[in-house]
Each structure stands twice: as C-alpha cells, then as structure tokens.
Amino acid sequence: MKLEEKVLSSNYIHKGRVVNLRVDEVELADGRRSTREVVEHRGAVAIVPLLPDGRVLMVRQFRLPAGRELLEIPAGTLDPGEEPAACAARELREETGYAAARLTPLFCSFLAPG
Asked: How many CB atoms lie within 10 A of CB 87?
C-alpha cells in the first residue's frame, strides 16, 4: 500500500508575515478521512560560525515564546527569492557583525514535517 494522502480541501485560517496556517481535509491511503493542521514557512537558515580558535560564535536573543533570553547560533528567515547561502551570509553579518570566509552547507531538513 502506498503511503500517500489526497487533499480534499484546504482552508487558510491565518496568513501572516512569517507563517501561514492551513487546515487540510485529507483522504488516507485506506480511504478514511482525517484533518491536517499545516504551518507554511518560506524557509530559514542557521549558521554554525567557527572562529579561528575553534570556538562557535553564538548570539543572545530575547524570544517571547520562551519568555526569556536564549543563547543561539545565528539564524533567520529567507527573504522572498533569496538563496540560502545569501541569507546565511546576511544573517551572520546582521546578528554578529562577522563576515564568513566561506560557507559550507551542512544539511537540509524539515523541523516539524507533520
């Protein structure tokens, strides 16, 4: 049996600057119906900047959902049409003032695919 879902209907419940929220009614492979809550995001990058002495450069940022300041690697959302490497270079510059001598992609992933 093929593990696919057929989208029967989609309803946007929020269209925002960073994310859209959608509710899809789907038909499962076995014919049953179910609902999927989908978060659409145009993508983001995170940078692991290594200093010449091997330390990782990190930033402190206040994050409202966490209710506190967090220590993070530099990261940010892709601008429309922006390539990930350009976004990584921009975010590193904006958040740390540093410019990368080179950028090496490590991996791509879905953070919360379903």
From this structure: 19
Enumerate helices (H) and strands (E) in the chain, giving the number of each. Answer: 1, 7
Task: Quote the CA–CA distance of 6 and 26 in Å, as a whole number.
Answer: 5
Strand-pair category, 33-41 with 19-27: antiparallel
Q: What is the mean pLDDT of residues 40-63?
A: 96
Strand partners, 10: 24
Averaged pLDDT score across all residues of the chain: 95
Is 85 within 8 Å of 93 (Cβ atoms)? no
DSSP annotation of 64 reads T
Token duo for residue 48: 């692991």
Buried/exposed code over 88-99 (b: 16+ C-beta within 10 A; e: otherwise): bbbbbeebeeee
- The pLDDT score that the predictor gives to residue 111 is 79
| The one-letter amino acid at 75 | A
